[in-house]
Amino acid sequence: MADITAQQPVTISVHNKQHGKPISRDLWGIFLEDINYAVDGGLNAELVQNGAFEYNRTDNPRWSHLFGWTLGHIGNGYRDVSIRTDEPAATENPHYLAIRLTGGITTLTNRGFDGIPLHAGERYQCSAWVRANGTDVQVAAELIDESNAAVVCHAAVAVPAHDGWPRIQFIFDCPVTTAQGALKLSITALGTSNAEHADEESSVHIDWVSLKPCAADGTPHIFREDLVQSLRDLHPRFMRFPGGCITHGVEVDNMYRWKRTIGPVEHRQHQYGYWGYHQSFNIGFHEYFLLCEAIGAKPLPVLPVGVSCQNTAGGVTTVPMEDMDELVQETLDLIEYANGPVTSVWGAKRAAAGHPEPFGLEYLGLGNEDVINEAFRERFTMIHDAVKRKYPNIAVIGTVGPVPNGENYDAGWAFAREKHLDMIDEHAYKSPQWWFSHLDHYDGRDPQGPATYIGEYGSWSNMHISALAEAAIMSAIERNGDTVCMASYAPLFGRLAHTQWTPDLIYFDNEQVMPTLNYWVQQMYANTAMTHVLGTTVANAPQFTPEPRDWTGLRFSSVDQGTFVFSDIQITTHSDDGTEQVTTSPALTLTGAGTALDTGLHVPADDYRIDFTVRRTDGEDGLTIDFGAITGSDYFRWAFGDWGNKYYILKRVGDGLQDEAVPAYEGGVESNLDYHVTFDVSDQGSHVRVKLNDQLIHDYQDSSQQTRFVATSGRNKETGELVVRVVNATDQPQRIALDFEEPVLTGESRGAATVLAGAWDAGQPFEPAPMQPRTVEVTAADLGDWQAEPYSFTVFQLPA
To answer: Domain of 194: which CATH number?
Structure first.
């Protein structure tokens, strides 16, 4: 870490004579997307995986319709099973398991998601749709503790031969606790033929196998309660759902269509999920609305606008204009479903689902990180204008792409102003270094609108330095809470061994819920939400002095298997008299996956040019090239063929975390072609130009300074509380004095200080936070002489 020049003491002046600037009451919320098995395998209380036999190789090349099931046979006869689709229980999800009864017992075992967790004293409901053909059958269900192969619950039911699909059900009161549970079904022919079906081949068909824990009244849970509680403890003002990239899907046929996710679960058409696994829609839009109610959050659904993800293989696909009326009507019908009276068509459907009261929808998102082109503008306009004509009080939220700068960002904001949108959804996944350097990013926005919603943001790790960077930028968001009206970290959940994206706010497995340091920062803000921001001035704040970047090295690293040959490697500098000096390296060859090759060059310079030629002789992926002060904590990395060899990306590495310095440039690496690469660096990296075959593809300029000590204040007029926040992201304790225009903590009154402090690199993915906030009582004397610990976030709560 770089040095901090300490200046003592730091005076924080709180202008509490002011009324304060009113800010959004809905500022802090959450974003729930089914990524990292957050919903299926997570919040979804269903314990059986693939109970509908709808998994397939589209979800995953290694998956079949029997994924998650182990089939067996005991006794006479033999196992004869198949997957069929004729006369299904539900045409929307037609696959089911067919078992030909040849004698003996056929068994089916499901271990859920990494084992089925069972808890002593809990009640479980097991159910299945079963059709017996030609003979009556017995279906036995057992809960197994696979840690010792013990049967802990057993029940059986006879199913007569029948043309239909009767639903059978078992209730189990579990006597043991185990993380390695399983559900086992055993199928036996009873030898009793029904005269009506006597000529049929004896078989049994099974579909929609389910196992859920029950509430105290015996009703099956919809959600996994400990995960719900982790959300409830964040006190979110809103919840954005269902995406994210899931909203617009991989292509238009894969878009999230909300009407397919309501009603009886068997009629909710399953599909491939954007994040590489199956979507059952057991948790659909109705359940998302219920979850919002359960955690006290306003719903913020996001719907597609008829364009696919901008990363769609082969290019963005769009809903044909002749089909857009259906998408427009689908959007209007969602609002009616959420808010309409029970006498309306969709309000009646909501009531039939058990919720006659409206859900009170106020916000609606349209699109997600879409390319802002003419196809998008045309389709967005159709939906937006229809919503505003019929429901003018619904706040419609647009989109400006995936990063907080660049072509789509600029075009999205221009379009938003042109359309006079209510709000715009910005996304920003940036490094701590970037956040500390851009705490003014949300300053100076037009109070007349559009307002800003930061729908997805984070700081690229679960380390404490990232949590502190998030605390710092949240202070800037709050300070601008009159124009930045909502914010939600992303992603929310990550299931151990099943993540597609890290870092995440909350990790979990079958037994544990593991909040991260990032989570505790979010909670510290939400628990002390302000209604008004006060003016705050800081004197003698510590100044951050970055490590010098007055030299450069050069290092090549492979991404996957492949061979790269480097030649004509040289670094050019200029001496004080203008003489050009060239340092060279011999030709090098990089082979293998995940290997690094350092040129060993160490050239002192503030300004320099690096040149080399590279050829890939075999392999299919790209590579990365590090340059600058590569042994320090602040240097550059160029990804030559990133994201599946689709982009060139210039990154800046700070605090051990890499981040896009400028928006990605589309392009990849082809084999047996020579590429000439130039890095032109000025002022120790304040200006970097990257050329490929003499074509400029990146032009990075950023001389901003990092601010690693931040203080803000405000009040909550509903609770009568004065709040002061202090972020000390430096490696030194900082002695501070809080100064108030009007006295606080007079007489015997006391306040509280909640502190989250630890090593800058504490905290890792897939682990609970190594420390948690601690709260202590404070007096007036403490406020006049307080020591902010190194790498700490402190929130003072004081009676106004």
So the answer is: 2.60.120.260
